[in-house]
Specification:
By secondary structure, the chain is mainly α. Helix content is 60%, strand content 0%.
Length: 321
């Protein structure tokens, strides 16, 4: 039998377009075809799941606005953990005599916590943990305006809850977790210092989240490292907050509003400056939409790879969702 006859026999009557072949390459037996299709489907799902967290069990959650509560809870929980370390460290240190935790460890700890938070829940909400970051992503057209209020409410709620937990368990000691200007530093200088430090922080965040530089887990290391390094040089001057929620949450709980405006205005000025720097470095528009809103993004659909559905970053519609 020739090779052509053998191929015709395997394809069955009607050839590739007939009932035996159908041009699909699947066997004539419907049960075998269904079994092979199921195997192909399992392989595709397995391959798709690599590098896409939570995509097996809940594939559509992050493209569905009814799951916005997941993102909001992630911001609340993440900010809670950040402030638990940032405000709790000084309180615990003061409670045990002032020498229990070294000054270096106190300022490095928040950076390490942010690194961990980005790694374990960045895919859910983008791990902003900071109103200044949320606003910066929005100005870069990477985050919808409609999500800003709940994100910021969640961030402040997380900061307040963390302060309540720490003070309830350990008490109020030392500066009680407040961020205050250093000795001999005016509120105006503290504000300017916070603006400079925040401009650097937001530049690192938007840079590692840009379309050309979405470097995954390395972004967590970059951001965490910056926070630690900025804390080492900035803590003696202003406390190196770089985060209105981290500063104003404890102030609200403790009723101490000393120089509070410096820790609101400074980070916001820094965030706007960082967006201007990003425009200079990479042009207008973002390119970090997936990173800003979580790895999967609001328009992610199975099988579409890394291309989000809907308006692309930088379009007129992407700024408002």
């Amino acid at each position: 039998m020739t090779s052509g006859e053998e191929n015709a026999r395997r394809q069955g009557p009607g050839g590739p377009g007939g009932p035996g072949g159908g041009g699909s390459g699947l066997p004539a037996d419907p049960r075998t075809a269904a079994r092979r299709a199921a195997e192909v489907g399992r392989h595709e799902v397995g391959l798709r799941s690599l590098g896409q967290p939570n995509s097996l069990a809940r594939q559509y959650d992050f493209s569905d606005d009814s799951y916005e509560w997941r993102r909001v809870f992630a911001e609340l929980f993440g900010t809670f953990l950040l402030v638990l370390v940032a405000a709790g460290g000084p309180i615990v240190n003061a409670r045990f005599g002032g020498n229990a935790i070294s000054s270096g460890a106190l300022v490095v700890a928040p950076g390490l916590m942010v690194l961990a938070i980005i790694l374990f829940m960045g895919a859910v909400s983008g791990a902003h943990l900071n109103p200044a970051v949320t606003i910066a992503f929005t100005l870069r057209h990477d985050f919808p305006v409609r999500r800003i209020p709940m994100y910021i409410v969640a961030q402040f709620a997380g900061a307040v809850l963390a302060t309540l937990v720490v003070t309830a368990l350990v008490g109020t000691h030392g500066t009680a977790g407040l961020t205050l200007p250093g000795h001999g530093i005016s509120a105006g200088v503290a504000m300017a210092w916070e603006a400079v430090l925040t401009a650097g922080l937001v530049s690192v965040i938007t840079g590692t989240a840009s379309g050309a530089q979405q470097i995954g887990a390395m972004a967590a290391i970059a951001v965490g490292s910056y926070i630690a390094l900025a804390g080492l040089i900035g803590a003696p001057v202003s406390g190196a907050s770089m985060n209105p929620a981290r500063s104003l949450g404890p102030a609200l709980v403790l009723g101490d509003w000393t120089s509070w405006w410096a820790y609101l205005v400074g980070p916001l000025i820094g965030a706007v400056a960082a967006v201007a720097f990003a425009d200079i470095l990479r042009g207008r528009g973002g390119g970090g939409r997936r990173a800003a809103q979580g790895t999967l993004g609001p328009g992610w659909l199975p099988g579409r790879g890394e291309q989000p559905a809907g308006p692309q970053p930088g379009s007129a519609q992407s700024a408002d969702g």
